[in-house]
């Protein structure tokens, strides 16, 4: 199966052909994928070199002229390094862009901590008005990329990862999907965490919601799920643990409830290793998740066989 990032350049290249407003801004990363598009649209495929602050600033400048810029590089260089430009050039100037990242939390362990960004969405949460898509499959990535580019002049972040679920789900760029129903708690699985969450909760009497658009957070879906499953909620996110705890608490503010946020820990892992080793070290493998989810929900979560 191809990866989400494999889909990125072909999908956006087609959008460049289809829509004269679309422009692409790169900082060396991903340039090879746009060679054909650059020949066809030399004025709308721009490589600024290894200058990430300029990357975002150029995107904002294009947006001020009425274009719809798609800005791409690794997450750590797209959100963290040029955060001031994201905050001011886009937010303060009230213009939109589509930021599309690669490398996610730890997709390239050999790149070291400079190429890891588990805190990207938590950082964007300090700003107003961002839509955040976290696809869990290449097909979903393609759909959400198209949603993002077509979203008027909004500020949109699309977080691509090499981690993927085995199958795609229908996504609409807004709502959570109910994948499994139960009565002893709600588990929200974000993006590529779904398959692992389903394996971890096999035999547990819980509702599993699947989220690929996490900002705005689908508070209505969470509240509906708690009507039959109770108000114990576990969030399993492929980035910094607790990133969505506050918005989940806000969704249930008028109800007695508990929320457990699981995700990437704050402790830096100083050995590169492999992706699977990072997953296990952060307790995001199926066995660890089952223990942590089961411990939080208690004995009532065990599904009784007929």
Automatic annotation (TrEMBL):
Its EC number is 2.2.1.7. It is an enzyme of class 2 (transferase). Pathway: Metabolic intermediate biosynthesis; 1-deoxy-D-xylulose 5-phosphate biosynthesis; 1-deoxy-D-xylulose 5-phosphate from D-glyceraldehyde 3-phosphate and pyruvate: step 1/1. Keywords: Isoprene biosynthesis, Magnesium, Metal-binding, Thiamine biosynthesis, Thiamine pyrophosphate, Transferase. CDD domains: TPP_PYR_DXS_TK_like. InterPro entries: Dxylulose-5-P_synthase, THDP-binding, Transketo_C/PFOR_II, Transketolase-like_Pyr-bd. It comes from the Bacteria. Pfam families: Transket_pyr. Residues 2-168 form the Transketolase-like pyrimidine-binding domain. Belongs to the transketolase family. DXPS subfamily. Homodimer. This is 1-deoxy-D-xylulose-5-phosphate synthase. The lineage of its organism: Bacteria, Bacillati, Actinomycetota, Actinomycetes, Kitasatosporales.
């Amino acid at each position: 199966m191809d990866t989400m990032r494999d889909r990125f350049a072909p999908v956006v290249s087609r959008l460049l052909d289809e829509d004269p407003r679309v422009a692409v801004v790169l900082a060396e990363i991903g340039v090879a994928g746009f060679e054909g598009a650059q020949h066809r649209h030399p004025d709308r495929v721009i490589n600024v070199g290894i200058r990430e602050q300029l990357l975002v600033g150029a995107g904002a400048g294009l947006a001020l002229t009425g274009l719809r810029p798609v800005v791409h590089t690794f997450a750590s260089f797209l959100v963290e390094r040029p955060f001031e430009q994201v905050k001011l050039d886009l937010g303060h100037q009230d213009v939109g862009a589509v930021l599309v990242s690669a490398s996610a939390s730890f997709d390239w362990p050999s790149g070291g901590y400079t190429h890891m960004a588990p805190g990207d969405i938590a950082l964007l949460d300090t700003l107003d008005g961002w839509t955040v898509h976290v696809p869990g499959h290449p097909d979903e990535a393609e759909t959400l990329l198209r949603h993002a580019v077509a979203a008027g002049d909004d500020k949109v972040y699309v977080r691509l990862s090499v981690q993927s679920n085995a199958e795609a789900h229908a996504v609409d760029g807004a709502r959570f999907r109910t994948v499994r129903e139960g009565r002893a708690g709600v588990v929200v699985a974000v993006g590529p965490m779904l398959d692992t969450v389903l394996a971890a909760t096999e035999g547990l009497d819980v509702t599993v919601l699947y989220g690929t658009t996490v900002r705005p957070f689908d508070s209505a879906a969470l509240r509906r799920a708690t009507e039959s499953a109770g108000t114990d909620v576990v969030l399993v996110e492929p980035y910094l643990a607790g990133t969505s705890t506050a918005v989940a608490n806000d969704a249930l503010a008028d109800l007695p409830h508990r929320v457990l946020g699981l995700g990437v820990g704050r402790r830096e892992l100083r050995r590169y290793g492999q992706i699977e080793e990072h997953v296990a070290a952060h307790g995001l493998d199926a066995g660890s998740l089952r223990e942590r989810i089961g411990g939080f929900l208690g004995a009532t979560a065990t599904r009784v066989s007929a």
